[in-house]
Amino acid sequence: MSLEQFTDRNVQQHYFKVDIEEYPQTGWDRFKQVVKRGLNGELFVGLWVVMREMIKFDIHTVQYPKEKLPIGPRYRAVHEMQRLFESGTERCIGCGLCEKICISDCIRMDTRIDENSRKEVTEYTINLGRCIFCGYCAEVCPELAIVHGPRYENTSEQREHFILFEDMLTPIDMAIKGEQKEYPGFGAVTPNEDARVKKTPLAY
Amino acid sequence: MSKVNITIDGKPIVCEEGEFILNVARANGIFIPAICYLTRCSPTLACRICLVEADGKQVYACNTKTKEGMNITTTTQNIQTERRAIMEVYDVNHPLQCGVCDQSGECELQNYTLELGVDSQSYSIADVERPIKDWGHLHYDPGLCIVCERCVTVCKDMIGDNSLKTVPRGSDAIAAKFKETMPKDAYAMWNKLNKSVIGLTSGEEMLDCTSCGECAAVCPVGALVDTDFIYTTNAWEQQKIPATCSHCSAGCQLNYEVKHTSVASNEEKIYRTSNEWNYVSLCGAGRYGYDFENRDVEKDETAFNAAVAAFEKADTIRFTSTISNEEALMLQKLKELKGYRLINEEARTFKTFLDNYAAVSGQQLYGGDLKKAHDANFVVSVGTALKSDNPNARYAFNNAIKMNKGAGIYFHPLKDPVIEGIGKGVFTAYHKPLREEAALYLLLDLFGDKEKLPSDVTAYLASFHTLKTITVEETVKEKVVEKVMVKKVNEETGEEEEVEEEKTTMVPKKVSKEVEVDENRLLELLDIDAQAWDDFLDKNLKKKDAFALIAGPDLYTHPNAKNLARLCALVEKYTDFELTMIPPLSNTLGVALICDLDSEAGDYSIGYNTKGDFVLSALGDGDLDMPAMNQQEGTLTSIEKRVNPTNAALPYGGYELGDIANALGLNAKYAIDYTAQLPVEAGFEARDFDSLPNRFENDGTEVRGYALNNVAVATGDEAVEKIDEALALEGENVIYAANPVRQFTAFTMKPHQLNEESGIYLSPAQLTAMGVAAGDTVRVKTAAGEQSLKVVEDNKIDGSVMCVTTFDPNIKTEELFGAYRFATASIHKEG
Asked: What ipTM does the predicted assembly reach?
């Protein structure tokens, strides 16, 4: 990319004038403008548009909450915790990177060594009351375990309800059936990743 | 040693001749990558990444000594290729799921892989099964191990346990194509790496050592991790709080690593301790004994008022030495204000010993320190069970012998397999208790300047020597010439013929000889075998120029302590020995210098962390709670004669000693307001707490607090008394007041990882000899008193002397002993 657009600081040359009427200067000019606009019937132009669309019965209003607009795949709403396909095991390995990167400091987890000498996450919470939905946690996650889902409605009687890990985790039956959707947003694998990866040689 | 001029990357540097290039570079802020090298230990040459070019030749910076005019380049094209290949090899079969690894964030493999920009892999080999090992307090994952052997090196050269070694990995040979194509050093390093993993020297399943955890601390990757810590938190989450360990007098620098307890609790918790392992080595108590804080304390006004009332009523304050200098000064100021008697018996005996020493030496404190012991090549220890009294003194003893081609003598009644395990360089003189004077006289006799020594001492020393003629049988090899017929092929004729040849053989022959030998009766007093002693000195006294003497707590309570103190001063004065004394407990030295201690207690006493009519306790079992040493800031005086600052790692909500002092008429907002008021005449400096640093420089310089001034003292005569030869503890059952390794006081009893039991520790041999088993209860009766104690088996001691623990305040083992640490006892099995 050329740096010309950044180095050329003479921005004046790219301006062009918009056709704007002269501002009224004197009291007489202002009086003339009021009379002209008041008698022009501009109000009825707008009213006619409304009338016309009402008669057509072609209404674009979304009947929320009965209807919902489709959400862009990269929209950042309430987090979801993904599971591995087939086995259904939680993807989260407890590395703590989301906890570290979180700029509003709302993620916290407890880990321990489990019976199989693996790292186990015993507690995981996101305080949605503090979360600013920046998406850093999803971006930094090496396992694509924490992602942003499309659920943007958060109402509850208690703030504590916003931090339940179980609510964020994909239900196990869904994961086993393969109904869990892969997240295409921040931190996801890009389409031409295979071509970029240098393969590690194997001796067998 | 002389100074030489060298250049590293064009930068002119003046350094000691013979220093390793790597250390010189580090001291001067020049970066040379190195993985396997540990300062203060021998170079292993496992990683080979510290390659540099010296005068046009590729050498390893960790084992090449500097010479005058050396010109060093730290990176060349070829070296860069080697280093990159080495890091690629380290990444072969090393799992790169850093997310679950405990070392992630402080991993040297991660760092160097990124530093050298390794973004692809050229090498491969089939992996072999390397199962995870549970070694008790350590967790070893060979899958992560890069076999840098730092754990093996530190265990051998620094700690002296020799518990780890490399064992065969059993993998395939590296493919031939790599040998031809890859850089030479990278191949050599891979070849070594591919053959081994780390295993236990004992061949057992569980680690049986003095449990210092230093191996896990030095591990550059996540292969060796403390079992208690594994997977609980990440390196970057914890706040490191620089502190000074308060368990023993070594006063090691360490960091308490603090984080909130869990999702549910915001309360701060110490997860582990870390240390600058290149410059200081922790013992197990320092490393694992961090959670001794007084938890969940709130301001209890009733108890506080009762405490103030008790102070008004009291005439005596009893306290232990696990307090800061500031608290000691508060007590001293209270004494001046209210006329309390200050009782701390162990500090008082140490103070008396120091005074007696000073009367001869002319200086208030011993001249040496452990740093000098580390640098010595002939170390002697007298009157201390090194490994449990002060583990750092033991590390210095071991390190000096291992690293400086040194030798050492260990004078002590208690047989110690750990000291014996240091190797051939150490001579163990297991003498009878109460014979410590003979050991010091022996040092004077061997190393003393006879011309300058007081004439009566010289005469007394000469009185031990007798010349004796003995007959020795020697084996001499004699030359015997034989004539033999040999069949040979005649080269001219091609025929075989017999030729007569002369053949010389050496035949051993026993000869009796009469020799005049010098017999030293001091050796007899110390139960030393004269022949073994002479052999040891013959072999080990050559080329020795730096001597260190470590004197321990056995001497301070000895009935002839005064004489021993004066002898110590004579040894320091008239030999080349640098003398270091081990203060018995954490801050005994500070207390001895600050407080004016009394010997007689009054009627009503306040006990601070000890028994009394009203008890202030940081252990949580007293009438008023006090903060533990990890909950308060202040300074501690260490064996190194240094005033080290320590910071509060955990919050504390209750009243402190300062609050009581204020209620009684002193005026200071914080304890550290007293830091600048510490007595200058005793060697302290009038410095504010906040100006005291607590760190190490890159060249290993200790920038911690400040060093005490060794105040000059008026001297008297140099007369010393003769050995009281009748004095020696004999008998079958000798008991010794000593704790197991990792235990010092009630504060080391509290941490959940330090689980040593209190009771009477017997060597396996003694267990058999007495017909008791571990877990039995025995009734121990001495002249002073009697106690029922639990029998514990301890394979870290040997012989018949039994150790009675003193760390547990629940069993009153002090009642068994007089002042001296040894006693004879009658022991019967109970029940």
From this structure: 0.81
